[in-house]
Every structure is written in structure tokens, then in C-alpha cells.
Amino acid sequence: MTNKEFIRDDGRKFDEIRPMKAKVGVVDNADGSAMFQFGKTIAIAAVYGPKKMHPQHAQNPKKGTLRCAYNMLSFSVEDRIRPGPSRRSTEISKITQWALEPVLMIDQFPNQVIDVHINILQASASTRCAGINAAIMALAHAGIPMKNIVSSISVGKIDKQLVVDVNKYEDSIFDEGEGATDIPFTFTGDGKISHLQLDGKISPEQFKEALELAKNGAKKIYEVQKKALKESLGEK
Amino acid sequence: MTNERKLVIPGEVIVTGNDYLPGEGTEKREKEIVAIKYGLAEESNRLIKVIPLSGVYQARRGNVVIGEVENITFNGWIINIGTADNAFLSLTEVPRYVNKDGLDEVMDIGDMVVAKIWGINKRGIDVSIKSRGLGKLESGMIIKINSNKVPRVIGKEGSMISLIKDETNCQITVGQNGLIWIEGKKIEDELLAKKAIMFVSENSFISGLTEELKKWFGGGEKIK
């Protein structure tokens, strides 16, 4: 079903991820921070804490709390977007939190909170994936104990063709045949799924193909994250 | 595993086999010892542990810390040592007679104090000032560095900090939470000690830093 010779509008092969860049320690005042980039999509994550949870009624004496805030900066897209929280950013904040929680070992921080702030400097689709990738690196940098690193990637279906790491054209402009479907995945370092979304339609057979594509892509992202964390020795 | 320290990321397998024990920052999963924190993996007496290089200060028993008196209760003082939970200094952990109505005469809100952590439990952190070198700070100055740089500022067996003390003629107490108290006869001495500590914390990744600091002190005197 998938044409392996397929060339996309930006010249990539179907399983080719845009050039990736990752860096740890980009925000000096944060307890941990990281940047992650997929081509023209850039995300910066800053972690503050663990610190005491306020207001007091929100404290959980059994385990620590993770709080994520995803924000797209007003200049991140071609038409200026209204700054501040929106329906979409609230949803993605929640999704990011759910994608990260399974690997974090925060039960040893009762009554405390870990704040993760994700800012999208430049957006060209797959922003939630870039945000999750940056967030987990920032959390590791902040010294938070975790079972494993997670790597997030999106798989798209444009008409009947599966592609990995969708760009802006494939995400929102493409409308031939069956149209475009976007499936973001998040995998742990040992290949388990911590987050999956599906917006659109796909057959069960093709979904299995998409899963394999995402798994292989996530491995490449994991290597980039690992390299960035190992290279940051000596910095803050 | 060799004695060399290596940088590990969470989820990375440090060693395989039953010859080693999992220490702090690690976890045993079947036959593998896996890192759960980002930092340097180290082995001593078959115990594997990961030392974090970044992040907020985590209180440990036995640490000497510097904090600010934040509040006074009927039987002690609440001290902010930069952790999520405040530390508590009980009246019984002060090595002198204290009038129960005059706690603020011994230490008032806003005073700085050097204390040792003797217990960490669900309710909070308990500190004491019953040993030598601990107690309220009456004069001098306090600077703040990243708590992860404290081991470098102290150096191997205190080599770095004694070099700074000798070169600047200052008394220095380094709190494990990153607050450092300096007191010298002249303000210039204190400022030089502060500069030297900042030099160490900014260049903490250089190997042979004690030698570099000696050169730095040499150059500093020439400029004068």
C-alpha cells in the first residue's frame, strides 16, 4: 500500500525525518532546559522544581505533581496568532503531561510540583512532538528521576501514502483523495507507547504499518536526544 | 565496569550481571542496573550510583547548609535552606540556654545561620547547630552559587577551598545548598574570595582546576 519510491513536496523520502537539532541547558534561570528542532519547528522547554505546590489545597501528600504548559508564541506562524491560552494549547498541555507522566518517578516528591513550560518559537507542524522531545530532555537535565527517556514522532497519511514527520503542507494544506491524517506517537526508550493520538481515519492494516514507521523514526530521535544530553557535560 | 566515571542518561544500562548493587540514582531491572537520573555513573565497592550534575538542591543527612530564619515558633525556628520543604531548628538543638519567651533574642527573622541536617522525614527537615562551626552568622557576606558546583569549590579533601582561604586570608563556610559565607579582615579580601569562588564555579568542567586557580591568583596579584 505504501509506495517506497514516493517523494514528498519538500523532497524527502516517505520515512525521512527533517534535519533534527537538540541542545540542553538553553535557559539559564531554569533548573533544567532543552531545545528540540525538526526542520522549521523549534520548541524550547524549561523545567522549574521540584518546588512546594501552591495553592496548598492542590498539594498531593501521596506523590508529586507534574504541570505542563504548552504555548505557541505569537510570531511562530505566518499569520500572527493571538497570544495566551487557547482551546488547542490547553489540550496539548494536557496531552504532554499524560505523555510524560508514565516514565517520571515523582512519587518521592510529596506536596511538590514540577513545572514544565514549553514554548514554540517557530511552528511547521509536529509542534507537540518537538515539545515532548524537548520537555523530557529538560526534565532529565533538572535531575528528575525517570524510568526512561521518551521520543515523540508524528506519522501522516496523505491520501493513501504514509509519511513520517509531517510538515506544514502535509498537515494542513494537502487535501487530495482521502485527505490528510496526522498520528502523533510517543515511545519510551524501550519501545513502549506512552501517547497516541489520531485525527482522521485509517484502516487497521495501514495503522500497523504506521506504527512500525513511527517506531523506527522514534529510534532516530532517541539517538539525537541521547547525543545532546551526553554532549552537554561541562555546561550548567 | 572500569573506575572511570561516565555520563549516563535515564534508562541507560550501566552494568549487567549480579556482581553489582544498585545505589542512589539507579534501579535494578532483572539482571541489569539501569540509571534513573541524568549524571555521572560511579562504582565503589561494587555499589553503582549516579551523581546528578544539574537540578535543584536535594537535602541529605549530614549536609552542612546555610539558611535564613523565616519564622519563629514556640519551640524553635523555621529556616529556609532553598529546598521545597523548610528546615526546622528545634530549641533543644541549640547548645545554650534559651529563654522560651525570647527566642528572637537568639535568632530573629532574617538572620542567617549555618546548620547541619540530622534528619529528613515526611514532616520536613530537622537541623542542628550543636557542632563546632555551626550557628548564627553575625558578620561577613553570603554569596550564592549553583549547588551542583559545591563539590568543585571544596575540591578533593578540601584542597580548593583551603587554597582560597590561604590566598585571601578569609574564613569561608560552604553550605551544600550553594550558599557560601565569607568573612575577612578587609572588604577587598572578601571580594577577592568571592571572585575566586565564581571563577571555580564558572570553570567547573576544567580538569586540574586547582592548578588553574593557582595561576589565576598569580595573575591577579600582578595586575594589582
The biggest sheet of chain B, with number of strands, parallel, antiparallel or mixed sense and barrel status, is: 5 strands, mixed, barrel
Highest-level CATH class of chain A: Alpha Beta
| CA gyration radius of chain A, whole angstroms | 18 Å
Helix content of chain A: 25-40%
Q: Shape of chain A from CA axes?
A: globular
What portion of residues of chain B is helical? Answer: 10-25%
The SSE string of chain A, one letter per element, is EEEEHEHEEHEEH
CATH-assigned fold name of chain A: Ribosomal Protein S5, domain 2
**Secondary structural class of chain B:** alpha+beta
Could you characterize what this model shows?
The complex is a heterodimer of chains A (236) and B (224). Chain A has one domain (20-231): 2-Layer Sandwich (Ribosomal Protein S5, domain 2), CATH 3.30.230.70. In chain A, helix 1 packs across helix 2. In chain A, a hairpin with a 4-residue loop joins strand 8 (180-188) and strand 9 (193-196). Chain A contains four helices and nine strands. With 236 residues, chain A is an alpha+beta fold. Chain A is globular, with a radius of gyration of 18 Å. Chain A starts with 19 loop residues before the first strand and ends in a 5-residue tail after the last helix. Chain B is α+β, with helices and mostly antiparallel strands. Chain B has three domains: 6-52, RNA polymerase II/Efflux pump adaptor protein, barrel-sandwich hybrid domain (OB fold (Dihydrolipoamide Acetyltransferase, E2P), Beta Barrel), CATH 2.40.50.100; 64-136, OB fold (Dihydrolipoamide Acetyltransferase, E2P), CATH 2.40.50.140; 141-223, K Homology domain, type 1 (Ribosomal Protein S8, Chain: A, domain 1, 2-Layer Sandwich), CATH 3.30.1370.10. Chain B contains five helices and 16 strands. Chain B has helices at 103-106, 150-154, 159-168, 187-202, 209-223; strands spanning 6-8, 13-16, 21-22, 26-29, 32-35, 39-44, 47-52, 64-73, 76-80, 87-90, 112-121, 124-128, 135-136, 141-144, 170-174, 179-184. In chain B, helix 3 (159-168) packs antiparallel against helix 4 (187-202) and helix 3 (159-168) packs parallel to helix 5. The interface between A and B is medium-sized, with 34 and 23 residues.
